[in-house]
Specification:
Membrane topology: Multi-pass membrane protein
Keywords: Membrane, Transmembrane, Transmembrane helix
Order of helices and strands: HHHHHHHHHHHHHHHHHHHHH
Shape: globular
Largest sheet: none
Number of helices: 21
Structural class: mainly alpha
Protein name: Major facilitator superfamily (MFS) profile domain-containing protein
Distance between the termini: 27 Å
Strand content: under 5%
Helix content: over 70%
Mean pLDDT: 83
Organism: Mesorhabditis spiculigera
Low-confidence stretches: 1-18, 283-288
Subcellular location: Membrane
């Protein structure tokens, strides 16, 4: 959008002309919401629909877990006429309830490419955000119609399925619409809102972790979903969606210009619009002609052997590697089980563990903003490598302290805090969008879907294994995170390219040169 020349006069013109005050505040508004308020509204809506709910779902069972386990036991007794679940079976059911989240997320991520192509990014986001409401409502009412603990699984599945769709939509939509110079900052806000979601459920968990009130912990998510759907009404669809659905190149350019905060003739739009033109004209000089589709390139190396396919496959698997390394740091699993870790493995009493878990959640919120401010200034590589190294150190301390027992419970709490905070301002934030910066836009929606599904599979294995292992072998279960994270550290440093302030084609060109392959992606 063109900047009003009157607003550029600032304070000096205020005494001379009536429009001076209005111009001054317009200039102040434009400066605060640089480059445009539209991209900030879009980012906020996507963060609430994806990151916030992901954090909320992941942590919603954390604090009232003893009350919910008791309800499952009670419901089982009513169903079977008095049978009592063994501790092993109850732990298994609890683990299954937790991994319903990543399992349903995979289904949603698999459905996301079809829905985005069928309805566009905007309508898909509204639809999936609406699904949060019945998912939360079913979870809420399960307590009031016993014996019906199975409804917890049904509600969690619907809720998580919708979040799986939104996790793909949010990554793709913001990467397609955010200007390169702030793309990292916009995308890394997802982790900040994920920590807000986790904090919100922990805050609700403090008063609601009782046998009577625990269902109310699902109510805030319904309120946020309603607000988010309203926000999506005021934003443009992604240019790629406009091209796919309407074939209107002029409208797509206008939408991108609105997000960039520039005039429609601005040359900064050309690179992205050229990619959109490919969807309309099926060819462009700005992007390499690919010989294979995304599935063949990523999963069939014996077929996709041309230089371009080799580079893209290498880049895509690096993106997946970063996602999986974050899973193995244990930051996600231990955030979900923080109360259990502090109480059962660390030696704290349950009430103190609940409050400490909440305090860590509070501290995590401002910490995630560190990545928001640094990711486009310092770059992705330093934050990835330093944060992962600190995670390894924290895991070593946690492993030793949980083996020693309650005498080192303060160190256990500090190690857990360091792990959750440092991962949030480094690999945790960057892993959410880094893979999307490594694949061509023509493959973006499918590649993002495949990679996030594979990440979720790793998450299923970790989260399903940790709780039973933690109950069985106590502190030794920390090795589940420590060993793979320590092994991956040198590979993370060696493989991961810097993507800050670069178009994906530039990154791929650099990777082709490094691998000594004859592939050219930029014009």
């Amino acid at each position: 959008m063109a900047v009003d020349t009157e607003s550029q006069q600032g304070f000096d013109d205020m005494p001379q002309r009536p429009g001076g005050v209005k111009a001054f505040f317009k200039k102040l508004f434009d400066a605060y919401f640089k480059p445009s308020w539209h991209i900030h509204v879009l980012s906020l809506a996507l963060c609430l629909s994806s990151g916030f709910h992901q954090g909320y779902i992941a942590a919603v069972l954390n604090q009232p877990y003893t009350e919910i386990e008791a309800y499952i036991q009670q419901s089982w007794n009513l169903t079977t006429g008095g049978d009592v679940l063994s501790d092993t079976t109850l732990n298994l059911l609890w683990s299954l309830l937790n991994i319903t989240f990543p399992i349903a997320t995979i289904v949603g991520q698999f459905a996301a490419p079809y829905l985005c192509k069928r309805f566009g990014r905007k309508k898909t986001a509204i639809l999936s955000t609406f699904l949060y409401i019945p998912g939360c409502a079913i979870s809420l009412i399960s307590k009031f119609i016993p014996p019906a603990f199975e409804l917890l699984y049904v509600g969690r599945f619907i809720w998580s399925f919708a979040n799986g769709i939104n996790s793909v939509v949010a990554t793709v939509w913001i990467v397609e619409c955010a200007p390169p110079q702030i793309r990292g900052r916009m995308a890394s806000m997802q982790e900040f809102f994920m920590s807000l979601g986790s904090l919100a459920t922990q805050a609700a968990g403090v008063p609601f972790s009782t046998a009577e009130l625990w269902p109310l912990i699902f109510v805030p998510a319904i309120v946020i979903s309603t607000l988010t759907m309203f926000m999506f009404i005021f934003v443009y669809d992604a240019p790629a969606s406009i091209i796919e659905k309407e074939g209107d190149l002029k409208k797509a350019r206008k939408a991108l210009a609105t997000y960039y905060g520039v005039d429609e003739s601005d040359p900064s739009l050309d690179e992205e619009i050229a990619i959109c033109e490919k969807k309309l004209n099926k060819k462009t000089k700005n992007e390499v002609k690919l010989q294979h589709n995304g599935i063949t390139i990523m999963f069939m190396p014996w077929k996709a052997k041309d230089p371009a396919s080799i580079v893209i496959r290498h880049a895509a698997w690096i993106g997946l590697f970063v996602k999986v390394v974050y899973v193995f740091t244990g930051a996600r699993a231990l955030r979900s089980y923080s109360t259990f870790l502090l109480a059962d493995l660390g030696g704290w009493n349950m009430d103190t563990a609940i409050w400490l878990s909440f305090a860590i959640g509070v501290a995590r919120v401002p910490t995630t903003l560190i990545c928001v401010f640094l990711v486009d200034r310092v770059g992705r590589r330093p934050l990835l490598n330093i944060s992962t190294l600190v995670c390894v150190i924290a895991l070593i301390a946690m492993f030793i302290c949980t083996l020693v027992g309650g005498s080192l419970k303060v160190v256990t709490m500090i190690a857990l805090t360091v792990l959750l905070l440092i991962s949030a301002c480094g690999i945790g934030s960057i892993s959410r969008f880094y893979a999307a910066e490594l694949v061509p836009r023509s493959l973006l929606i499918n590649a993002t879907s495949y990679l996030t599904m594979l990440e979720a599979l790793a998450k299923i294995g970790i989260e399903f294994a940790f709780y039973p292992l933690g109950n069985a072998i106590k502190g030794w279960s920390i090795l589940l995170f420590l060993i793979p994270t320590a092994i991956s550290l040198p590979f993370l440093w060696w493989w991961c390219p810097e993507t800050s302030n670069k178009h994906v084609n530039e990154v791929l060109d650099e990777m082709a040169v490094k691998k000594k392959l004859d592939a050219k992606f930029s014009s």
